[in-house]
Write a structure and sequence with these properties.
Four copies of one chain form a homotetramer. By secondary structure, chain A is α/β, with parallel strands linked by helices. Chain A has one domain: Rossmann fold, CATH 3.40.50.360. Helices cover 40% and strands 17% of the residues of chain A. The first copy, chain A, is built from seven helices and six strands; from the N terminus they run E-H-E-H-H-E-H-E-H-E-E-H-H. In chain A, strand 4, helix 5 and strand 5 form a beta-alpha-beta unit. The longest helix of chain A has 16 residues. The two termini of chain A are 14 Å apart. The mean pLDDT of chain A is 96. Chains A and D meet through helix 5 and strand 5 of A and helix 5 and strand 5 of D.
């Protein structure tokens, strides 16, 4: 079971649509997957699931527990203010330690309206994931200009992007 | 007016105590300052102050408006999971764009229980601040082993740390 | 006097041609500049100008001394293997310490054949420059797909890139 | 066969002495290893082994070929100016592409006289290695205050550092 982590709590985000696309790709490759969408986070989780309250919020725990279904993970992160969304890091800050992300094999995808394609989001995330003991795949996929390339049916009008995602998925399965 | 931004919403955090220390330092140097403590964030700000709701939460706006009192800023960030707290980035994600941090002259301080001293937290933050048009002081101060060095009266038992903070404060005032 | 540092020792590099373009831009803005091209480094500088030999190579010193002509600097770096050229860092490693880059106001430009545009090259360089006490302008300019956009007369067939470079140059002059 | 890459061309460097220490550690763990010390680089390699001359310098090629002896690598990098030595990156810039570091499993060690312990050197290197298709172990070991901790017999007077290096070596062998 591969978990696809949608790295923002924005409702109906493009990151979620990329997760849908990736789930289809994994199905084609005969791999099972599930989606963990941060849009489902309880709205007060930054107090009710952190610090003295760590581990006590059932709605947060339900999401966190999805990470335990397998040892492979794909994190799909939009670019907010040049890096990943704060909410994604706050979710990570609420996970049990050690555990949560430890020894997970993790693939990263960054998306942006502009041309950066989440490069800094992914390099910052890599530091955090390595600190937590995750093994990050070297194939970090940038999806720049996503507003142009993602169409209504959640498919990608961009040959190279589709190829890079497929190569990444195959590498994750073989890892 | 210099704003001291406490980069976590943990109540009564060590970062807050460093802010208290720094405020005394600035007073000695005849500079006015105010503290913006993320512990005062509304507990549901990651939904009520972001995306479709950006700009509509009065309690969030009151904190964000503190940034407009001057053009100098000190960000004091603990190290959570090898980087800055997600809540700090989520606060930044809720600020008006452009604006908020644009053209602010910003000094960074990182603190940690371990030996890293928030180095990665500060380098990640630098990328975000530069993206938003802030000018970051080169004097980034690491405060490792803060659990040993910060005492009951919010003073620092560490000569080099005290010296680095003073040199940073002087550089910020001269900038 | 603004120094334009060409961040590779490759002869007749694209980075050099961007330096030529930028020099014309600065002339239009009534600012004097000079070009420091690492193609002029002595070919054995990694031994003859480092460690026990630091400061003893006249050909290296002549280049290093160009940095002392003023307090503003533009570093134009190609992207080699996802970051800046090792030769650029080796040149920095041979500079006198402290000094060389200390208190310089520095603008960064990254160029690449691919889509990254030297983003990681610039973020890595920022860390090094801040360590050395340089003040880095927040306007870091990415020039992706430079093989398409740079034409025979060293001008740029890309409106946004030309605009970003002009805004950066104006910000550097005003800094 | 595990290759221990000494990331500076400084003669008789501390990084080399850490490589000696690590080689003993690997011998204890019944693993074969060899040392690739950049002090053996030809002194003009930044011109004679790069660009038009790539692949034509036999002395450079002899060192580069050592990387082909196995699929596991340890890079030991001192901290120069807040990051890794330029010479290390220039060596990487001269390697055949793709190849050289592709699909290598790589462990990183950073050392410094000061307290940073090569954290930024290692995070910058991680970006470069991932770009080149290496898989970087999450266990990145910082060795701060190395001037105090490394003694005459190339052993380490620091319990935690010894433990972290051993855990890293075991993780590399199991990877």
């Amino acid at each position: 079971m591969i978990t696809l982590l949608v790295g923002t709590n924005r409702p109906s985000s493009r990151a979620r649509r990329i997760a849908n696309y990736y789930q289809n790709l994994l199905t084609e490759l005969n791999a099972e997957s599930q989606i963990l969408d941060l849009a489902e986070l309880p709205d007060n989780f930054t107090t009710s699931a952190l610090y003295a309250n760590a581990g006590t919020n059932p709605a947060f725990n339900r999401l966190a527990d999805l990470l335990n279904a397998g040892n492979k993970l794909v994190i799909i992160t939009p670019e907010y203010n040049g890096s990943f969304p704060g909410v994604l890091k706050a979710f990570i800050d609420g996970l049990p330690y050690p555990g949560g992300l430890r020894e997970k094999k993790t693939a990263l995808i960054g998306l942006s309206n502009g041309g950066q394609g989440g490069m800094l989001a992914m390099t910052h995330l890599t530091d955090i994931l390595m600190y937590l003991g995750s093994i990050v795949l070297p194939q970090r996929v940038r999806l720049p200009f996503i507003g142009q390339d993602l169409n209504q049916e959640d498919s990608l009008n961009h040959d190279l992007s589709r190829q890079l995602l497929r190569e990444q998925a195959e590498a994750l399965l073989a890892f």
